[in-house]
Structures are given as structure tokens and as C-alpha cells.
Amino acid sequence: MPTHCRNKLPGIAKIELKLAPDIWHWQYTKGVLVAIITNIEDLRVLHQKRTPKMFYDYADSGSWTESTYRANESDFQKIKLRQRVAVDMTNRTTKTTMVGQEVAMPVALAPTGLTGMQHADGEILAARAAEKFGVPFCLSTMSICSIEDVAERTTKPFWFQLYVMKDRGFIERLIERAKAAKCSALVLTLDLQILGQRHKDLKNGLSAPPKLTIANMINMMTKPRWCMGMTMTPRRTFRNIVGHATGVGNMSSLSSWTAEQFDPGLSWDDVEWIKKLWGGKLIIKGILDEEDARFAANSGADALIVSNHGGRQLDGAISSIKALPGIVNAVGKDIEVWMDGGIRSGQDVLKAWALGARGTMIGRPFLYGLGAMGEAGVTKCLDIIHNELDITMAFTGHRDIQNVTKDILYPGTF
Fold first, then answer.
1. How confident is the model over 179-234, as pLDDT tens digits?
2. How far apart are CA 282 and CA 354, in angstroms?
3. How would you label 235-266 residue by residue, b for 16+ Cβ within 10 Å and e otherwise?
4. The CATH number of domain 58-408, selected from 3.20.20.70, 3.40.50.1970, 3.40.50.300, 3.40.50.261
5. Is the pTM for the entire model greater than 0.85?
6. Per-domain residue ranges for the chain?
7. Which residues are marked as active site?
């Protein structure tokens, strides 16, 4: 805020000066001048302002030309809704279940790597926000906070996401740790046998913790909130891996370790082995093709997630929302179908539900909130999405999400 504006606000005890310059809506509350955040884009702008470039870019980018990353969002925007009037809009509910778990709305926080680099102790904060709101949280194998870190600081079971490594002994130990932490579902990701090329990560020299190059230090000097948080936590590397994987005592590079350990020979036989080893609820993530969806349904998994890894793997692949209807038609009666990729609003959640998804996962939206405002930002993200979902459902003539079908969508737009 310009100095001449600040001088005309006597009595302000504290002024928030670190907001992004293009958020122009302000509110004076209890001696604090703050931005009014009304949508996920506001959180994204603030996240970019407050988080080091390499970690913001890691969250907000795709592979190669990023065409699939962009299509994930733009294809949602092409789907239009039918507005209904003179219908009873009272006593609305968005409650449902995901793999038998009651949820406040059909949304879960997706597994995202390096979440604890968007904000200190990020996985713990996100898990707490999800628990309080009544939606599932899924911890990534490539998290900064470990399975044990999150379990010790939450009160309800969360989900754990698994990548298949060449070191099968490490996989067995990860699964046993997830069981010991009472994780209630295992999310098995199949679309990262090899790492897609993400130009921004390579140019930024992505690592955790960040390497202290001159460019990184200059950038971090502009992020004092982030730096202060990181100095106050011991969690600054991949704690599910360091000290647990054989021969790994120190690891900073995500790309080099994944290149060495992620298994390009992964097959459906491995899925069967993992299902037996785990013995609980199994969710398969990374399905874009109807034939693969049938394999997933036949595997005995409890749910599958239509996903292109947020446009971060095969650039040029179909968007998740475009792939969803065909997969629902192929296997929707045999297995619970969810989707992720491109969701930026509660309207997007409702559109996915209308097209047959019985659940959705959000990654970037909650990361924007986390990087912007910590746990409060994740809660704000969930509040925004729930409010948009609830109001949009009412405008389309429904009070209970269970009764919503594709009839709410304008013909010819999906």
C-alpha cells in the first residue's frame, strides 16, 4: 500500500503489507488492513507473493508446453449449467461418502509432494484443516512431514498415497508405517513410473531444502514469513524417505531420487501384490483410459481416480473432466469413480459430480491457501469451494447433492 494511504489511517496497530499488489479489495478489521479473499484465484495470487519461486512454480506448473495443465481448467469452463427458478432451496446438504467415509462434501485434499515447502509443516496444517472441515486428507510419499509427523498431530485417520519403488522392501516398510499410523485408505498412484519433464523445476533447480544459490537467497529474502517459518521447524526434507530407504541418509533432489527409484516396470501384478499387503481400502489414481479403468475395476480396488497428474506427466493428454464421462460409463457400476485435475471452484466440483464422479480431489487450490495463509488458508479454500458448491447446487434446482445428475448441465456443452 502506498505510504500516503497508510498515513491517512490513524490508529491502525498493524498493517498487512505483504499482500500481492493486484489484490485491490481491502477491509479494516480490528486495527488490521487485510485483503478480502473471495475465490481461489485470490489465494493463488497471495501464495505466489509469499512463497519462494521454485516452490510456487512446482505447485503451479505442468510438463512440457503445459497444454494439458491448461486444458484441465479450460474444459471445465466450457461446461454450462442450467439455471432453475421457483424451486425450494431450503435445507440444503452437500454431505456424501467417499469409500464409505462420511464427508462434508465430495472433496478430498489430494496427495501433493513437497507440501511442507509451501509453508512450514504444511502437511500437518493441511491435515488439521481437512479434519476440522470434515473432508479427507491424503499424505504423499514425497511429503516433507512424515507419516508419523502427521499422525502424532491429528486425531482422525488420514489417507496415504504410495508410489511404487524398485526397492520393494522400502514399499513394504512404508505400508507397515501407514498401517501403524492407522491410515484409513491407501491411494496407489500409477501414472508416475517415470517423471515427466517439467521445465520450470529444472530451471529453478528444485530441491528440498532449497540450495543456497545467489538467486535463491535473493528470492527468499523477499519471503520473510516463509523463511521465519522454516527456521522454526526441523521438517525440511523428505521425511518419509530419509532414514527409511536403504542407504538414504540425506536427500535433497526429488528428480534424481525418483529417476533412480520409481519403477518403470510397474504392472497390474504389482497392484495385486500391494492390495494383499495393504489389506484395507485401496484407491487407484492416474486413470485416463477406459481400458485401464476396466483393469482397475477388476483389481478389486474400492475406487479409481480419473487423473492426468494435474497435467504434470503426459503433456497433450486429454483433460480429466473430458475423460470422466467415458470412464463412468465403462466402469461406474463396478467401482467408485472420482476425478482430479483443474478444479478451481465449487462449481467445478458440482460439474464433476453431475458427470458421474462420486468424489473429487483438489491439489493446487489447497496449496494456494496453504502458501498464502497456512492452516487458515486451507480452511479458507475449503470454505470457498463449499460455499460455491452449495449455492450453485441451489441455483440448479437441488437441495441434496445425492439427487444431482447431468440434467443440471446445458445440453451440448459436455
1. 999 999 999 999 999 989 999 999 999 988 898 889 999 999 999 999 999 999 99
2. 24
3. bbbbbbbeeebeeeeebbebeebbeebbbeeb
4. 3.20.20.70
5. yes
6. 1-36, 58-408
7. 309
